């Protein structure tokens, strides 16, 4: 496979300490090069090499396509920004563009909006060049422009970081799952939970969406459909779109069991069926989402897993912590057999629940 690559040389008195932190933070990703002066990391979106000499450090990132290359530059630039407080020393050379519209940005426009259940709204969007969204992660970030203003979209900086519009042009960013996609016809579906809250920009957008409304989107990213023979899926309403898609894309030779928490039976949606799929619906019956603890309780009742079980979970932060504890500490599942993520956090705006595997 032909990889794209880009490199940057950094000369800064503090760079060695900053690189040491990178190594500590990505110790799981490091590959032994057998050379103390050359480090190599295999990450989710590509690879990163660092070669040290008297002139500082030469960092090279490589990835399968321009989107992943851009993410790799962003990961490294984000680390530099966080620990060196400036990215002035970063100038990328090689593949990919470092100015103008990010390669992973799209404008999308509402085609239709349908209520699937009392608490779920499906919005179908049209957009250009959607084929890239079919692989490389189930998730996207939706960029909601301020009400009543002409949208100003993000651009790329020369350091590889996104330059976000600010002040009155600031965008609201929320993470969602691509529920379905037809790149040939040029549409994608996103299912939004309609949840309570004083200000709920994304849920309110979905509830009021009208054909022709335009928002921005960056992605794809995050994990994909897990490849496992024996899959246990756990999630609340926010993970229902991901679970529905994973079940639809399940390999015929795999089996899946799903525990899904929603408010009541009328919030169930049709899911892929089959001999090898078992779905257990759990109902809050009016109790506050994220506070009922139904998912961890169901897991404890279910008991210890089979040897080849692979766990996937997405839910509110408190349940996420409990589920991660069950899976890791009580069941002793190794890291490569579980992916447990917080999709949202009670009382916090933003949707990146703050917990991640
Ligand atoms: C990887 C990933 C994928 C996701 N995919 C989806 C998806 O496909 N569909 C989907 O609906 N959500 C999804 N989410 C969750 C979604 O991003 C959050 O629910 C987000 O907070 C909603 O934004 P908002 O603007 O409506 O509310 P916010 O402004 O973020 O929050 C306002 C208030 O509402 C509360 N709140 C947020 N979500 C909920 C909820 N579900 N129930 C009750 N209270 C809530 C917050 O705690 C806060 O108090 C995903 C999150 C992640 C991290």
3D architecture notes:
This protein has helices at 15-25, 66-84, 201-208, 240-248, 294-302, 317-330, and strands at residues 4-10, 30-31, 38-42, 47-53, 56-63, 93-94, 105-117, 120-127, 139-144, 155-156, 162-163, 172-177, 180-182, 187-193, 214-221, 230-236, 255-262, 277-283, 309-316, 338-344. With 357 residues, it is α+β, with helices and mostly antiparallel strands. It folds into 3 domains: 4-94, 2-Layer Sandwich (TATA-Binding Protein), CATH 3.30.310; 105-221, Translation factors (Elongation Factor Tu (Ef-tu), domain 3); 230-344, Nucleotide-binding domain of ferredoxin-NADP reductase (FNR) module (Rossmann fold, 3-Layer(aba) Sandwich). It has a 7-stranded antiparallel β-sheet. A hairpin with a 4-residue loop joins strand 3 and strand 4. Helix 1 crosses helix 2 (66-84) and helix 5 packs parallel to helix 6. The chain is globular. The mean pLDDT is 94. Bound molecules: flavin-adenine dinucleotide.
